[in-house]
């Protein structure tokens, strides 16, 4: 038979794909059940393969037929328990079903495809000797040749081998047929029936043509065997013209039990269905059984509909096939494949309601027309109200036709997870929740890839190998949970696993290695921010590259794809406990709730999915709340700094503001916090404007300054795409509205700040803002303000030189200085005039008090402070008192590894030097300097004695010679004995050796061989030493490190070179010991 | 022996009938009558020449089988010859060839 007409073929393809969508998960379930097979399930899969094969045979799709035939053979063996479905077998079956899917998807050229490999694989299994010979019991149970009583003839004894006698159960008569013929027919995917038809009474009487009848039989199947019941017509003499001619037929057909009687139109009792075990079942029973397959009742009605609603992506007119309302008995099976479908199933009830609404709309239109012609205002109003209502309902109903269960996507994951887990040698259970949650078809199709990526990631990177899980006290089987639910008008999809979580530190390290961020940035990042690094382009943490992931593309692609959908993703992760990706998606892309804002004379829409909150900063609070960091504006929001973007600047339009007369005026301010007056810009740019009010009081303000007018408050829309959160400064906040998304024209496609457009109620166009796009345009990255300073390794630094966070500044043009950043409390910019000289001492008024000032050249032999109009004041808090160090710009903060030389340039007030940015940089000894200028500041402390009455001994571990010498000096100055160690390991040895002497441990964190954390952990775990206080010194005191240290039992966490704090801490801890 | 031979020879009397183009219910009555006449003649073999037959229906088929039954009861055979392809195909689909000897055209 040749390939039939397109429509039939199309139906076959759709039906087969549905069978396949199920088959995959069923195979997995069969695999799971193992030897303890679920017969119903195996039967179901068998039937699916069988149906596909049947159609293929009918349509002449030989490759599909051959493949399904072999699959069926194996399934047959599984069903008869001749074969236990082990993972290898299921693997091959899954492979075959994949191939089958490809063949069916490309059904036209399926006959030319090479399937020999899969076919051989299948044959190898099916022909392999049985894994377990079936037990005698099984053999006996297997219904085969029926006994004489059932056969209605005594011929069975005489039957030659391979011939079966099939008889009507009532024993009316039997038919003999070769077994080969039956297996061949069922091998073709056909159903086999035994039918008794009276050709005269049931055929002729209905005016049916005998030839046509036989043709029908031959076209829909094949007659395996037939018998005319010869005695029925009787004898010519006695019985006259024959009235009965019984014809018994063994018929193999592609027609299903439900349809077979369309052919015969006889009493169904005379049709029997031959089961695979060669027993006969009544057609009615066979029909019930077949009905359990989900697809049987769906009557496909193909209706051409047009996409009524504009989609962000143009959607071609769609085929809608309609599922007849079968009442509450059966749920629509979400069996469709996750691939892009050109047709979709819609409930008849929904179409009915659409039809109703369309009807009502017509009526309302008539009413409206009438109102217009009669000029009746009242009718007019009623009609417009009705149209309003109907439109909303219509919109809702049409949206519903596009809604698809997320199960369509979820259903493919059991296979994905299983295959991956097998490849990676992991044990993983996948839990799917909320399959019934519905989303717009466009989103369902587009979400598939990002979700697959995230699930694969969880399996590959998240869940640990069973061995490791066991070691960590977890169940060897990991769990991946895929869950969808509604929340606040949006759909949330969560992918969570109980794996090893994402280690923010590792991510940050990796990002630093790849040059994506600097160390300085990394130290300033919270754990959550570090985790979000995973979405940066060019990121991958897989320690070894697998074919699964670790290609360094991916997560950023996931992010981009979700952005396109208007989705937002965020991550929560706990090292050792697992991670959770949470995707927030709009229900549909066509109509979205959004906030309308205005800038200049234009209105824009911001999708609410991107909006976190609206912020209005009253005019008189602007200066307090909005600050400038570098050249970026930020706003203080609940203790965090939020970067600000002025929308007008980014999209390049004139800013306006409402003046006190409620008129729109151009806004000329350069900085957000600027006042009208252009005086004293420098001071305004200071970080602590609010603290400077006293020095600003003399500046007069115009009482009509717009900042006193409520309308000139700053409106900020806080937006976020999950990772990046920023404030968008807009001129006006208008309504929130549901807008219909219109795609941007081709010419505007490249404008990255816009996601689309919409038409407002007044007919004007408003552009929809693309939140991530605007951030890109403003060059805002999640790692804020990627600074120019880079990590440098200079002066032949050894591999384990400490990272130092230093503040670099100058005193004069000639010399560069540095101080540990950790010691600096803040930096002020002051005018030279603000400095008051009292005798030999310099002071300035600061926060209502007098701040003493020092210059490096007061103590050290360096160039004097350059005479400039303004100075920097670096404020230190030493021994509870504040002191300002005068300096000049440029000012820079950097984190670097540098080797300090503590001999060549050492002098009072200078600890030593290092080469930074090709400049010899002097490290200022701020304590030494202050001590010289104000000797009375640092009170001598009594040395805490140990039990032997001697000065206590302190074990000090530090790998950098420079710091070791410095810190050791501080401690020895106080009178303590110091035992030095160059790394943690040496420190441990020394501790064991001098265990009786040592009263306290001071340790660096970053050290070779054994770092400070490991050393502390070892000490605290050892009963001999656990009582010893440990003080950790670091240059990088991130919150995370501090927390980690505290958890390990470190008693205090200090900045290196903070002499006073260290002295205090040592004193305190030794005292309380 | 000779007598028996002669008797046997007599018994092997062949009869050939050539039905018209329809062996259908409309012609059933006349065909039935003709067949009865032939069967009553104690022949040993009835050959139906299907050369002219174009159409046959279930009743016609029933007649042929009934004729065969009647002939068989008398130890006589029915042979269908010159059966056109179309009808031959029908007969083989019905497995009529299992009980009646059919010679295709």
Question: What does this protein look like?
Answer:
The complex is a heterodimer of chains A (about 1050) and B (about 100). Chain A is α+β, with helices and mostly antiparallel strands and about 1050 residues long. Chain A folds into 7 domains: about 5-140, Up-down Bundle (Four Helix Bundle (Hemerythrin (Met), subunit A)); about 150-290, no CATH class; about 300-405, Four Helix Bundle (Hemerythrin (Met), subunit A) (Up-down Bundle); about 405-585, Histidine kinase-like ATPase, C-terminal domain (Heat Shock Protein 90, 2-Layer Sandwich); about 590-675 and about 685-695 and about 705-775, Beta Barrel (OB fold (Dihydrolipoamide Acetyltransferase, E2P)), CATH 2.40.50.180; about 805-935, OB fold (Dihydrolipoamide Acetyltransferase, E2P) (Beta Barrel); about 955-1070, Response regulator (Rossmann fold). Chain A has 34 helices and 45 strands. Chain A is elongated, with a radius of gyration of 41 Å. The N and C termini of chain A lie far apart (about 95 Å). The model of chain A is unreliable at about 130-160, about 290-340, about 540-555, about 675-700, about 705-710 and about 785-800 (pLDDT under 50). With about 100 residues, chain B is an alpha/beta fold. Chain B has one domain (about 15-105): 2-Layer Sandwich (Transcription Regulator spoIIAA). In chain B, strand 5 (about 75-85), helix 4 and strand 6 (about 100-105) form a beta-alpha-beta unit. In chain B, helix 2 runs parallel beside helix 3 (about 60-75). Chain B is globular, with a radius of gyration of 14 Å. Chain B starts with a helix and ends with a strand. Mean pLDDT of chain B is about 80; it is low at about 1-10. The interface of A and B includes residues 225, 237 and 247 of A.
SS summary, helix count of chain A: 34
Helix content of chain A: 25-40%
Name of the CATH class of the largest domain in chain A:
Alpha Beta
Shape summary of chain A: elongated
Please state the structural category of chain B: alpha/beta
Structural class of chain A: alpha+beta
What is the tally of beta strands of chain A? 45
CATH superfamily of the largest domain in chain A: Histidine kinase-like ATPase, C-terminal domain
CATH architecture heading of chain B:
2-Layer Sandwich
Low-pLDDT segments, ≥5 res of chain B: 1-10
Name the chain pair whose interface involves the most residues. A-B, 31 and 31 residues
Count of discrete alpha- or pi-helical segments spanning 4 or more residues of chain B: 4
What is the CATH topology of chain B?
Transcription Regulator spoIIAA
Question: Can you give the helix content of chain B as a percent range?
Answer: 40-55%
Major pleated sheet of chain A? 10 strands, mixed
Strand order of the largest sheet of chain B: 1-3-5-6
Q: What best-fitting shape of chain B do the alpha-carbon axes yield?
A: globular
């Amino acid at each position: 038979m040749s390939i039939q007409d397109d429509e039939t073929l199309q139906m076959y393809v759709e039906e087969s794909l549905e069978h396949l969508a199920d088959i995959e998960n069923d195979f997995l379930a069969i695999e799971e059940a193992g030897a303890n097979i679920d017969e119903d399930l195996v039967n179901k899969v068998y039937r699916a393969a069988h149906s596909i094969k049947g159609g293929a045979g009918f349509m002449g799709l030989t490759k599909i037929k051959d493949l399904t035939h072999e699959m069926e053979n194996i399934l047959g063996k599984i069903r008869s328990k001749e074969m236990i479905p082990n993972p290898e077998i299921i693997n091959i079956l899954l492979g075959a079903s994949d191939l089958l899917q490809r063949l069916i998807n490309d059904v036209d050229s399926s006959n030319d495809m090479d399937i020999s490999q899969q076919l051989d694989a299948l044959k190898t299994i099916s022909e392999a000797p049985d894994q377990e010979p079936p037990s005698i019991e099984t053999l006996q149970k297997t219904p085969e040749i029926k006994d004489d009583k059932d056969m209605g003839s005594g011929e069975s004894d005489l039957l030659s081998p391979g011939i079966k006698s099939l008889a009507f159960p009532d024993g009316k008569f039997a038919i003999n047929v070769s077994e080969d013929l039956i297996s061949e027919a069922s091998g073709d995917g056909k159903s086999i029936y035994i039918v008794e038809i009276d050709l005269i009474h049931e055929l002729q009487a209905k005016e049916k043509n005998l030839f046509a009848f036989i043709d029908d039989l031959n076209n829909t199947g094949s007659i395996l065997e037939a018998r005319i019941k010869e005695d029925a017509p009787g004898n010519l003499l006695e019985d006259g013209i024959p009235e009965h001619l019984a014809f018994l037929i063994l018929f193999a057909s592609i027609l299903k039990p439900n349809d077979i009687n369309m052919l015969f139109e006889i009493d169904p009792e005379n049709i029997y269905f031959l089961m695979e075990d060669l027993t006969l079942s009544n057609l009615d029973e066979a029909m019930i059984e077949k009905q359990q397959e989900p697809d049987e009742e769906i009557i496909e009605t193909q209706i051409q509909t047009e996409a009524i609603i504009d989609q962000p992506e143009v959607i071609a007119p769609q085929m809608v096939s309609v599922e007849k309302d079968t009442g509450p008995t059966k749920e629509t099976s979400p069996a469709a494949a996750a691939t892009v479908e050109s047709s979709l199933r819609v409930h008849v009830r929904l179409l009915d309601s659409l039809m109703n609404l369309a009807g009502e709309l017509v009526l309302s239109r008539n009413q409206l027309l009438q109102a217009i012609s009669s000029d009746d205002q009242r009718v007019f109003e009623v009609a417009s109200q009705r149209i309003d209502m109907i439109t909303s309902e219509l919109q809702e109903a049409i949206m519903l036709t596009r809604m698809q269960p997320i199960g369509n996507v979820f259903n493919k994951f059991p296979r994905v997870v299983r295959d991956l887990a097998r490849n990676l040698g992991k044990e993983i259970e996948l839990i799917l929740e909320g399959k019934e949650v519905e989303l717009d078809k466009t989103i369902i199709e587009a979400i598939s890839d990002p979700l697959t990526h995230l699930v694969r990631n969880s399996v590959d990177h998240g869940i640990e190998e069973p061995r490791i899980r066991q070691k960590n006290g977890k169940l060897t089987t990991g769990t991946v949970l895929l869950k969808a639910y509604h929340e606040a008008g949006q759909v949330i999809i969560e992918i969570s696993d109980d794996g090893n979580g994402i280690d923010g530190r590792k991510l940050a390290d990796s990002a630093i290695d790849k040059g994506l961020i600097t160390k300085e940035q990394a130290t300033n990042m919270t754990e959550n921010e570090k985790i979000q690094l995973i979405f940066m382009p060019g990121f991958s943490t897989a320690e070894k590259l697998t074919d699964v992931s670790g290609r360094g593309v991916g997560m950023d692609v996931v992010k981009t794809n979700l952005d396109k959908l208007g989705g937002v993703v965020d991550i929560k992760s706990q090292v050792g406990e697992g991670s959770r990706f949470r995707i927030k998606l709009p229900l549909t892309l066509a109509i979205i709730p959004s906030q309308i804002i205005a800038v200049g004379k234009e209105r824009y829409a911001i999708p609410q999915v991107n909006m976190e909150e609206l912020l209005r900063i009253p005019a008189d609070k602007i200066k307090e709340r909005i600050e400038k960091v570098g050249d970026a504006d930020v706003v203080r929001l609940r203790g965090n700094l939020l970067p600000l973007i002025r929308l007008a600047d980014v999209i390049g339009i004139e800013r306006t503001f409402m003046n006190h007369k409620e008129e729109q005026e151009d806004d000329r301010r350069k900085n957000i916090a600027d006042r009208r007056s252009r005086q004293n810009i420098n001071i305004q740019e200071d970080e602590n404007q609010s603290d400077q009010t006293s020095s600003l009081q003399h500046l007069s303000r115009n009482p009509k300054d717009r900042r006193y007018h409520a309308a000139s408050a700053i409106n900020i829309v806080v937006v976020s795409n999950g990772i990046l959160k920023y404030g968008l400064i807009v001129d006006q906040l208008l309504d929130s509205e549901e807008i219909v998304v219109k795609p941007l024209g081709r010419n505007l496609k490249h404008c990255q700040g816009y996601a689309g457009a919409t038409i407002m109620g007044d007919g004007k166009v408003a552009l929809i803002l693309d939140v991530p796009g605007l951030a890109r345009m403003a060059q805002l990255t999640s790692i804020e303000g990627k600074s120019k300073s880079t990590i440098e390794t200079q002066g032949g630094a050894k591999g384990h030189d400490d990272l130092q966070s230093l503040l670099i500044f100058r005193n004069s043009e000639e010399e560069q200085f540095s101080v540990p950043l950790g010691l600096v409390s803040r930096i002020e910019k002051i005018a030279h005039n603000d400095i008051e000289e009292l005798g030999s001492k310099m002071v300035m008024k600061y926060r209502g008090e007098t701040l003493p000032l020092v210059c490096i050249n007061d103590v050290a032999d360096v160039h004097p402070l350059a005479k400039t109009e303004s100075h920097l004041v670096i404020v230190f808090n030493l021994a509870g008192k504040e002191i300002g160090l005068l300096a000049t710009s440029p000012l820079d903060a950097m984190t670097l590894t540098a080797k300090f030389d503590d001999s060549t340039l050492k002098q009072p007030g200078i600890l030593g030097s290092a080469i930074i940015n090709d400049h010899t940089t002097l490290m200022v000894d701020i304590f030494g300097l202050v001590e010289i200028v104000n000797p009375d500041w640092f009170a001598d402390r009594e040395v805490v004695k140990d039990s032997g009455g001697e000065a206590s001994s302190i074990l000090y571990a530090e790998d950098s010679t420079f710091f070791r010498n410095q810190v050791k000096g501080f401690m020895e100055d106080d009178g303590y004995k110091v035992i030095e160690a160059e790394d943690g390991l040496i420190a441990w040895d020394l501790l064991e050796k001098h265990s009786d002497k040592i009263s306290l441990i001071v340790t660096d964190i970053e050290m070779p061989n054994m770092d400070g954390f490991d050393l502390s952990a070892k000490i605290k775990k050892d009963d001999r030493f656990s009582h010893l206080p440990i003080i950790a010194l670091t240059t990088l005191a991130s919150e995370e490190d501090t927390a980690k240290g505290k958890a390990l039992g470190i008693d205090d966490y200090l900045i290196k070179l903070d002499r006073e704090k260290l002295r205090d801490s040592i004193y305190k801890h030794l005292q309380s010991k | 022996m000779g007598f028996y031979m002669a008797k046997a020879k007599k018994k092997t009397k062949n009869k050939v009938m050539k039905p018209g183009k329809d062996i259908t219910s409309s012609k059933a009555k006349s065909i039935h009558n003709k067949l009865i006449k032939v069967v009553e003649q104690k022949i040993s073999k009835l050959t139906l020449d299907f050369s002219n037959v174009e159409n046959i229906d279930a009743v016609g088929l029933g007649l042929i089988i009934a004729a065969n039954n009647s002939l068989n009861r008398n130890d006589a055979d029915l042979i269908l010859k010159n059966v056109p392809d179309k009808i031959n195909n029908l007969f083989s689909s019905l497995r009529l060839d299992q009980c009646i000897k059919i010679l295709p055209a």
